[in-house]
Amino acid sequence: MKIGVIGAGNIGGTIGAKWAARDHEVFFGVRDPHKASLVEKIGGMTGTVHVGTSAEAIASSDVVVFAVPGASVGPIVDENLDHLRGKTIIDASNNMRGESRHALGYLRDRLPTANLYRAFSTLGWENLAEPDFEGTKADLFYCGDEGAKHAVDELISDVGLEPVYLGGTDRVGLVEGMTDMWFNLALKQQMGRRIAFKLLK
Ligand SMILES: NC(=O)c1ccc[n+]([C@@H]2O[C@H](COP(=O)([O-])OP(=O)(O)OC[C@H]3O[C@@H](n4cnc5c(N)ncnc54)[C@H](OP(=O)(O)O)[C@@H]3O)[C@@H](O)[C@H]2O)c1
After folding, report:
1. How far is CA 60 from CA 5, 26, 110, 149, 193, in A?
2. pLDDT tens per residue, range 46-87
3. What residue's CA is closest to ligand 1, atom 28?
4. Would 196 disulfide with which of 92, 110, 127, 181, CB 3.0-4.6 Å?
5. What pLDDT score was predicted for residue 119?
6. Strands (DSSP E) along the chain, which ranges?
7. Which atom of ligand 1 is the closest one to the Cα of 69?
8. Rounded to the nearest whole angstrom, what is the distance from the C-alpha of residue 139 to the centroid of ligand 1?
9. Cα separation of 50 and 57, whole Å?
């Protein structure tokens, strides 16, 4: 797949590197493509990796993943509406101080034909970097439209996580509940950031 990863930090850099290593074409969209630490980070990745502005990454990709500070998602969306229409969009950002932590409503209003997903937002990034817990794969609970669900399942699997589909975008509250659970256990209950979830069947 051609994937535009907007933001190349802890979340974007981690999942983007894994996708590139699994033969996806990854285009990182950032504010400063020439930043020395970024150039070094991307130079260490294997596979097909490009870096440019968010507009370039979005225009070149079929799947767009938002992994930027939550308050930055809206402005990036508004600046790139023409190139986002009809695409598969994954919102991984958490807008901790916004009216809504996720951007699915914002995206749906502006991009009614896009396939929208809420994924990669529920676990600390360390668990995306290392999703294997002594031989057990962590689950990633996510929601979104039926249209590109198989592609999103594949992308979650390619990070090394087990996808668990919770339903359409109307299930986003369940995904946010997983985030609340993670924060509560990791931080308030002081279990530490290296925790994830598994559905037993
Ligand atoms: N860290 C976690 O464990 C975790 C877990 C789940 C979800 N999240 C969410 O995922 C998002 C990213 O978190 P992170 O930990 O990866 O943050 P981070 O390490 O600070 O990385 C953020 C990235 O976004 C870029 N960026 C910032 N503003 C931008 C803009 N307007 N346009 C393009 N790129 C921009 C930054 O680039 P420059 O600053 O270099 O320009 C950087 O590459 C946040 O919304 C966070 O809440 C984080």
Report:
1. 11, 9, 20, 21, 34
2. 999 999 999 999 999 999 999 999 999 999 999 999 999 999
3. 68
4. 127
5. 99
6. 2-6, 25-29, 48-52, 63-66, 88-91, 115-118, 132-133, 136-137, 139-144, 162-165
7. 45
8. 22
9. 8
* Rounded Cα gap, residues 72 and 66, in angstroms: 9
Q: pLDDT per residue over 141-165, tens digit each?
A: 999 999 999 999 999 999 999 999 9
Residue 49, beta-bridge partner list = 26
What pLDDT digit, counting tens, does each position of 5-28 carry? 999 999 999 999 999 999 999 999
- What's the start-to-end Cα distance of the chain, in Å? 31
For ligand 1, residues with CB inside 6 Å are 6-12, 29-32, 35, 54, 67-70, 72, 76, 92-94, 121, 124-125
pLDDT band at 183 (very low <50, low <70, confident <90, very high): very high
Q: Token digits for 45?
A: 């990745």
Q: How far apart, in whole angstroms, are the C-alpha atoms of residue 103 and residue 106?
A: 5
Q: Kindly state the tokens that stand for 77.
A: 């969306």
CA dist 100 and 81 (Å) reads 20
